[in-house]
Write a structure and sequence with these properties.
351 residues; mainly alpha
Amino acid sequence: MARSGVRFEDVQRAIDELMAAGQAPSVQRIRETLGTGSFTTISEHLREWRKRREENRDVPPPRGMPAPLQELAESLWQQAQDAANEALAHYRREADDKVAEAQQAVAAAERRAEDAEQRENALSSHLTHSEERLNERTAELSRLQAEHDTLQAETTRQREVRGRLETRLDELQDELERQAQAQRQAQEELEAAHQARLTQEEQRHEAAEARLMGLLDEARQERQAAEKAHATRHERLEKRLEGAKAEQQALQDALKEEEKKRRAEEQARRDAETARSGLDEERTRLGARLEDAQAALASRQARVEALEQQLEARLWSSLEKMQESQARLEAAAENASGPDDAGPENQDSQD
């Protein structure tokens, strides 16, 4: 409730002075004009004045009064209209600006949310591609490991073949030694009788020996070539295996980094959603404030109309008082001229 220190009539008188000076009424200016009063009390009286003014805003000044009074009433009514329209336009501009700012903030938040969603989709696609590449590399590594195992088995098999060849070579050497010994024995037994045949046998022995030596050289060369090929292939497979392991490690590191980025994007998206929720709440609050401002404007318009009606009533009251004063003056003038008119009549009655 307003305090009894400043009355509504005091505030209304200060408002009339401000409007006569061409200034829009405000709580600060009214208090400066009055020199006292609390802001709460002056604000309540100012709201009441505006409510009454808005109620009488569209009521024009009465006609049929003296021209100076009519001009004064029209001037006051126009000033009241201009001040009300200026305040209404100011509040409307302020409300429109706040709504536009809220809409821009909401649009920016929606754009940030869409960008975050697009980045999340791109990151998910990249992560899926990385997982596919990792699976392919893992399958390649498994294939290389199987090939390595196959080569190991081939190496074992070649070693077995080499062992069999060496065994066969030893058997051939033993056979050669046995044949040589048999030939020596035959040569010893038949040296006298078969000198010619011994020479032939020696030639055959030399041919067999040469043939056996050739077979031995071929077996050794084949074994060396197989060992060299195996060593080369094994070294190549070892290098490919090391490269595959290094690439797998790099892919795992990249996958971890992509996962970290995805979590950061998810956090950014959650922040954007939180900001958008806050903006929606702010837009709701601004809408409520806009409705309150519109209601306040409607209330002020009603107060202005009430004040215009009050002004009209005062103007009619002043006009009636002026007419009463004029009537009293005319009556006084008639009373003052009455005795002079009665003089001749009295003389005639005396005669």
